[in-house]
């Protein structure tokens, strides 16, 4: 006796409907998510705007603590006293909205993923957000004071360091973004292993080249001093080792399930 064909699963039905959906419908769905992102970003920006000057004072605190008593920060442009806090306010709003932004992007691509991909993507997404914030925190509390102390301590005695507020803001934002993305190395390593593009054995064999690559990359993306390079390259190396360790644990779990 022939058994009746089983009904298609809900996931399979959703994937078929997505494949049959025209590109214009996908764009309409994407536009709805983008509108939500823009609305939250604008709302956060205007909520934080009254505190823009106070936020900039917090950002400049590591520099002002290192400056001599006779030195101060300066503005070389008429609009700098307004634009610098304004730019920083937008950056803070963007960082605060990042979990919501990633959630909206995740909600857009989630229907196209299999159940296994969804179960893996959720912890990776949460981990990437946490590591990004951790990288920015490390840059502000550890790297930035050390780098500023080095540069000010080596300045000639006849030169009074007076940093422009726009230049300092650009320096800090670049440093924050570099460290924020650098702390994503464990997630990138895990994704490459999960996709089968590399294996942990290959990464172990290429470890010495990867370590050299960490110092090579740090040399180009940090200020031109050895301290900045070391403070970025060493965490990159340690984060790679963390991702490699997690990859080994994942491969062992796979072998046990086979």
UniProtKB/TrEMBL annotation:
Subcellular localization: Cell membrane; Membrane
GO CC annotations, alphabetized: TAT protein transport complex
Keywords: Cell membrane, Membrane, Protein transport, Translocation, Transmembrane, Transmembrane helix, Transport
TM annotation in the entry: 34-52, 90-109, 121-148, 168-195, 207-223
An example Gene Ontology molecular-function term: proton motive force dependent protein transmembrane transporter activity
Keyword Membrane included in the entry's annotation: yes
Topology versus the membrane: Multi-pass membrane protein
One Gene Ontology term from the biological process aspect of the record: protein transport by the Tat complex
Highest taxon above the source species: Bacteria
Family in the record: Belongs to the TatC family.
Record PANTHER family: SEC-INDEPENDENT PROTEIN TRANSLOCASE PROTEIN TATC (PTHR30371), SEC-INDEPENDENT PROTEIN TRANSLOCASE PROTEIN TATC, CHLOROPLASTIC-RELATED (PTHR30371:SF0)
Subunit record text: The Tat system comprises two distinct complexes: a TatABC complex, containing multiple copies of TatA, TatB and TatC subunits, and a separate TatA complex, containing only TatA subunits. Substrates initially bind to the TatABC complex, which probably triggers association of the separate TatA complex to form the active translocon.
Record-linked HAMAP family: TatC
Summary of the function given for this chain in its UniProt record: Part of the twin-arginine translocation (Tat) system that transports large folded proteins containing a characteristic twin-arginine motif in their signal peptide across membranes. Together with TatB, TatC is part of a receptor directly interacting with Tat signal peptides.
UniProt name for this protein: Sec-independent protein translocase protein TatC
Organism encoding this protein: Acinetobacter wanghuae
